[in-house]
């Protein structure tokens, strides 16, 4: 299985490659990608340098062009496809059909991966995207159980990539409206969930902190309580007098224990989430998953999860806790 790791900037890209990533995914400094945070992503020169660093070591670079442009801005996404082809990217990761169509017609040799934002969760959807746009791979949304992943692997016309570790999104990617509902801006259209310009932190005299998104109170924290990046889905809300994480607790997806089952199913690539995370996160998580994958490949019959692996991954998890998320459902 290929290990695909995040690169939010050039140092993170270099760290991922040096720690053992088979491929990295990156974005340009605009709204063509779904992590358009200030200070993140790549200039043209940085992208060229990153591609050179990866290719010199036999690794790959995928360019994320996974947002949904309106018709007035399509030319910007088309230009980004041209740039990916011209710079020598190994694939683009796209969701919008016009972008996929343009890439297929204009740069047929540039591999096209269907983004998780494309929301393909069924065999017919995968077949359509393969037949119409010639996708070479599809990234599955993080809402499927392991049984559903296994069944899709049996019938999919293209290799499948699944998220293995990182921030867990409970929505079907590409269809979430929460950020748009509160701020008018969404990762699907504007490249970022909970844009920083709408976030406001307030601290009281006793050290307690509250966070508002576009003046909507979404959480309060005790003085020593860790607080991650504020999103609506991970806020705490008053529901009939009880305050709790009504949608999703701050936790990270960790499928390490499922690695043998994912390999047996024929999953082509394991994806690490976290282009918004720092170099230390990227290097540590990449190194840990590289060790686990390599040990499984060498001795699948005796493979087991090493405590040190889980300890290292838990250090980088949201809320310092992990979950299998939708991969494991008791009712299945």
Which characteristics define this entry?
TIM Barrel; alpha/beta; 11 helices; 8-stranded parallel β-barrel; 332 residues; 3-stranded antiparallel sheet
Describe this structure in words.
This protein has 332 residues and is α/β, with parallel strands linked by helices. It folds into two domains: 2-168 and 251-327, TIM Barrel (Alpha-Beta Barrel); 186-244, no CATH class. 34% of the residues lie in helices and 20% in strands. It has helices at residues 10-19, 44-55, 74-87, 97-106, 123-133, 146-155, 178-183, 187-190, 259-265, 279-298, 307-315; strands spanning 2-6, 23-26, 60-65, 91-94, 111-114, 137-139, 160-167, 199-203, 209-213, 216-221, 237-239, 242-244, 252-254, 269-272, 322-323. The strands form three sheets. It has an eight-stranded parallel β-barrel, surrounded by six helices. The chain has a three-stranded antiparallel sheet with strand order 8-9-10, with no helix packed on it. The longest helix is centred in the last third of the chain and has 20 residues, at 279-298. The protein is globular, with a radius of gyration of 20 Å. The mean pLDDT is 91.
Number of alpha- plus pi-helical segments = 11
| Largest sheet features | 8 strands, parallel, barrel
Tell me which CATH architecture of the largest domain applies here: Alpha-Beta Barrel
Question: What gap, in angstroms, lies between the N and C termini?
Answer: 26 Å
The neighbouring-strand order within the major sheet is 1-2-3-4-5-6-7-14
What is the fold named in CATH at topology level of the largest domain? Answer: TIM Barrel
Contiguous runs where pLDDT drops below 50 for at least 5 residues: none
> Assembly state here?
single chain
Q: List the helices and strands in order.
A: EHEHEHEHEHEHEHHEEEEEEHEHHE
Shape: globular
Work out the count of structural domains. 2
Average pLDDT metric: 91
CATH domain class of the largest domain: Alpha Beta
Quickly give the structural class.
alpha/beta
């Amino acid at each position: 299985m290929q290990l695909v790791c995040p690169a939010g900037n050039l140092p993170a890209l270099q760290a991922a490659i040096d720690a053992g990533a088979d491929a990295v995914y990156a974005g340009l400094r605009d709204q063509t990608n779904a992590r358009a945070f200030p200070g993140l992503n790549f200039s043209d020169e940085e992208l060229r340098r990153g591609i050179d660093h990866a290719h010199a070591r036999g690794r790959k670079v995928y360019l994320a062009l996974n947002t949904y442009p309106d018709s007035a801005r399509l030319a910007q996404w088309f230009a980004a496809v041209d740039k990916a082809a011209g710079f020598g990217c190994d694939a683009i990761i796209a969701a919008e059909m016009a972008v996929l169509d343009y890439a297929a017609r204009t740069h047929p040799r540039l591999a096209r991966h269907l983004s998780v934002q494309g929301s393909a969760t069924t065999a017919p959807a995968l077949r359509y995207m393969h037949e119409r746009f010639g996708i070479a791979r599809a990234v599955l949304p993080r809402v499927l159980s392991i049984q559903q992943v296994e069944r899709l692997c049996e019938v999919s016309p293209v290799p499948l990539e699944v998220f293995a570790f990182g921030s867990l999104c409970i929505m079907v990617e590409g269809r979430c409206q929460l950020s748009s509902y509160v701020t008018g801006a969404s990762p699907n259209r504007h490249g970022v969930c909970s844009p920083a310009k709408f976030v406001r932190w307030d601290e009281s005299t006793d050290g307690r902190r509250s966070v508002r998104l576009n003046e909507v109170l979404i959480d309060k924290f005790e003085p020593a309580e860790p607080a991650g990046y504020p999103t609506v889905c991970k806020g705490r809300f008053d529901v009939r007098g009880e305050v709790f994480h009504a949608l999703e607790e701050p936790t990270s997806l960790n499928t390490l224990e499922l690695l043998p089952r994912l390999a047996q199913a024929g999953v082509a690539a394991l994806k690490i989430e976290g282009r918004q995370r720092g170099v230390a996160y990227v290097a540590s998580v990449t190194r840990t998953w590289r060790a686990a994958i390599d040990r499984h490949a060498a001795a699948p019959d005796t493979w087991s999860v090493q405590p040190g692996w889980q300890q290292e991954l838990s250090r980088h998890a949201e809320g310092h806790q992990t979950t299998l998320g939708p991969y494991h459902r008791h009712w299945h």
